[in-house]
Design goal:
26% helix; D-amino Acid Aminotransferase, Chain A, domain 1; globular; 2 domains; 302 residues; D-amino Acid Aminotransferase, Chain A, domain 2
Length: 302
């Protein structure tokens, strides 16, 4: 029999199936919620949560950008996540902290509206079915939002309408995922992933000024690549560089490291996972599974 699952909501553990909100909830109607995505990996019969501290800090920072009073500090949220993973008896899972305006009154104003915080932890495998073989991408006609429109550094629910448009367009054209450009025409990121290119052996990724979400997996790969002796450049990336790159891959909590083997119908490199992508992917797997002592501080063992 499956283990009973719980959701942490406003300081209490409730049955998974009883985690409900009113149909007119502000954040459902207007996309005013904020969230995080965190993974845990099996580790000797227990769960190893990857970079919990950094994820919780970003959640709190997103709330600050949107002036949401969560009512909980980083330590309290981290403790709730750890307890939930234990209570749900999970080893490999996806953890979703979510804050929302828990109010059914119609109107855009959030003044005086209650902020609720919920956390889910569910079993989770590969985000992309073809992750091992590599995926195809299409450069989207939808541009990535920028700080003049909405704060791209915040992980807010409403931001992802932009991502859904791009991803849906790509899939309708037969691609697996989209690649989004900035309003200035430079490469930004995927709908829910950061992007890296290998150019003449150098690892290149769009800089924070390219309207990207500052990914925690992205930061991990930069640090890992530098530890492996690779040169890493954070800079503006022209669209045409996608077509001549030796290797391309996405990074993200859900995507982990996913190779991109085709962009706009053009084969990337040899049309399969390249050696640098494979080396980084293998090394990343060792880290998240607790088999690299040099990065043990990235794991919270539950």
């Amino acid at each position: 029999m499956a283990t009973k699952q719980y959701i942490w909501q406003d300081g209490k553990f409730i049955d998974f199936n009883n985690a409900k909100v009113h149909i007119l909830t502000h954040s459902l109607q207007y996309g005013s919620g904020i969230f995080e995505g965190i993974r845990a990996y099996p580790h000797g019969g227990r769960a190893a949560i990857f970079r919990l501290k950094e994820h919780v800090r970003r959640f709190v920072e997103t709330a600050k950008i949107y002036s949401m009073d969560l009512g909980y500090d980083e330590e309290e949220l981290s403790a709730a996540i750890i307890t939930l993973v234990k209570k749900n008896r999970l080893q490999q899972c996806y953890i979703r902290p979510f804050a929302y305006y828990n109010d059914s009154r119609i109107g855009l104003s959030v003044e005086g509206k209650k902020v609720s915080v919920a956390i889910a932890a569910i079993p989770f495998g590969n985000y992309f079915e073809n992750k091992g073989k590599g995926i195809s991408c299409k450069v989207s006609s939808w541009k990535r939002i920028n700080s003049e429109i909405m704060p791209p550094h915040a992980k807010a629910s409403g931001n992802y309408r932009n991502s859904i448009l791009a991803s849906s367009e790509a899939k309708a054209s037969g691609a697996d995922e989209a690649i989004m450009l900035t309003s200035g025409g430079y490469v930004a990121e995927g709908p829910g992933e950061n992007i890296f290119l290998v150019m003449k052996g150098v690892l290149v990724t769009p800089s924070p000024r390219s309207d990207i979400l500052i990914g925690i997996t992205r930061d991990s790969i930069i640090k890992l690549a530098e530890e492996k002796g690779l040169v890493v450049e954070e800079r503006d990336v022209h669209r045409e560089e996608l077509y001549i790159a030796e290797e391309i891959f996405f990074t993200g909590t859900a995507a982990e490291l996913t190779p991109i083997i085709k962009v706009d119908g053009k084969k990337i490199g040899l049309g399969r996972m390249g050696p640098i992508t494979k080396m980084l992917s293998d090394s990343f797997t060792k880290i998240v599974e607790g088999n690299d002592d040099g990065f043990n501080d990235w794991l919270t063992i539950v």
